Amino acid sequence: MKTTSASLLAAMLLTLPSTLCHAGKGADIKPILATPGKSTAEDSFPGTGLAKTWNVAKGDWQVHDGTLVGKEKKEDNHAAVCGLVVPNHDSIIRFSFKFDGSNNLAVSYNHAKGHLFRVTVSPTAVSVATDADKNDPNSKSVPIGKAEAKFENGQWYTMQVEVLGQKVAVQTDNGVKIEGSNPALDVDKTGYRFVTRGESLVLSDLKAWEAAK
Fold it and tell me: Residue 138 belongs to what domain range?
């Protein structure tokens, strides 16, 4: 029996590693918690510099070939931090990321009094938790949700984070889906902060919206 081109292609696709079967960079993820409203940010990192909405707090962050590349500076003695200064209350943010030497990423939300909560990505999991209040020695981080996953170095992935009142939902294009809630989340937020250690983390295709039910 002759093997047709179509059947040969199908057989080849079936043998591809699962990590190659998701969309990766620029994937479209359907919201599960909120409805996108007014666009508040969109950045494909053209040119050679960051837009005025960005603020480099720690580390080295450079725009390169349509991406934002962040890495830690040893002299800072602190993780690399780059903030997108877009105040929000209820919001949706979606972006693509790639570990390119680094093995960690946190998307941190702050409010007027400091750290609020964060989404943390490692090579094997995604977790969501409130941040401890640095001004309160008795304050502790409170877990909101966690999912096992696999994030390979050098591979693009897309993440979407929705916040609506006390609720938060996190999705990635490789199957992560986390939903949870905490009363502390229902406050005005100062923006989004991207945090990483080592070198390097690469970001691209960022979009953010106001969120509604």
Answer: 25-212
